[in-house]
Amino acid sequence: MLKVNITKTLKHFQLNANFNAPKGITGIIGPSGSGKSVTLQCLAGLQTPRQW
Question: Which pTM does this prediction carry?
Fold first, then answer.
């Protein structure tokens, strides 16, 4: 299981992603500008989410 709890603040955008994904293939869908790419970049380690 993948557990995700990310908060990332950019210039004009704040990403709050909190979800659990079961083992297997997981897709992230949403409209343009909803934070899909930033979420994946944080999971891949390309961006650093805010640490609380």
Answer: 0.64
